[in-house]
Amino acid sequence: MRSPRNRAFTLIELLVVIAIIAILIGLLLPAVQKVREAAARSTCQNKMKQIALAMHAAHDVKNRFPAGQEVVNLTGPCPAQGSPWTDARTPWSVAMLPYIEQGALFAKFNENASFAINREHSTGATNYAAQTTVMPTFHCPSDPRMAGTNFSSYMVVAGGGSPTASGCVSDSYAEFIIYSNGVFFINSRTRLTDITDGTTNTYMLAESKYMVIDTWSGGQTKQGFWSAGTYLQSTWRYYCNLTAAVEPINKPCCGITDYTASTLRQHEAPVGRSFGSFHTGGCNAAMADGSVRFLPNSLDLNVHRQLGAASDGLPVGGAP
């Protein structure tokens, strides 16, 4: 007797199986990506929560929050230093280190010596080597260009308002404005009791994808880092490591198209006036009470600006 023949797949059957597998993979990939983004967003929120709690721990010790940045030889309410990189001292991100179990790193800084503003203005800065230490604490995992760098996804909030609101406007470029009506700014000494709008209605920390991290084509090295400072010359005046609630969420100023993961980040102006992230639909922010909220791109612009200010009596009815 002859043994029965084994029947093989026909070409059509094989193609059908491959098509079914491809459809299943197509259905699964978006779900996997959503899960990954949800995890990244949760990690980001947890990091911001820890920074906010560290700020409160510093307040408990000193009876005030750290300054946005300490500056010596400050003349008048708006900085006008001729040599702005020699007057910069401790930024908020260094002052908080002992409260996030980074005492060893904090000990490497000399708070009475100069701090670098950014990579361009770092010559002679005593603390530059310690300032450019890689700090994963300040990295949002949703930003593909943060991992392994000394850049930062998080900035304290110096205030908020319209571009024509009171603030230190650059003498040469109107888009560069230093706000100081929030919780953190140059030589700020803010106490919880100073936040008369209420700590639940005032921004403390914002997520940002606008830190300058790329070298200009002309070779200018204006990149910031997690412990960068503020340019204090009157012709420019811009924050490197602080921001303000001025522009809509994820919509930078000055005619700049919003950043994608691969966009060159070279413009200084959006840093001090824009919140934003690579999360879908908005970004995270920590309020002055330590809570972390997700701010949608649709957040009313006036409310957003009012939440940046600590004592303007707005928004009426509280934050949304």
Question: In a nutshell, what does this entry contain?
Answer:
This protein is α+β, with helices and mostly antiparallel strands and 320 residues long. The protein is 22% helix and 13% strand. The chain has one domain (11-308).
Describe the structure.
This protein has five helices and eleven strands, in the order αββαααβββββββββα. It has helices spanning 11-62, 92-95, 103-106, 128-131, 301-308, and strands at residues 69-71, 88-91, 154-160, 168-169, 177-178, 203-207, 230-231, 238-239, 242-245, 282-287, 292-296. The chain has a five-stranded mixed sheet. It has a two-stranded antiparallel sheet with strand order 1-2. A two-stranded antiparallel ribbon has the order 4-5. With 320 residues, the chain is α+β, with helices and mostly antiparallel strands. The chain has one domain (11-308).
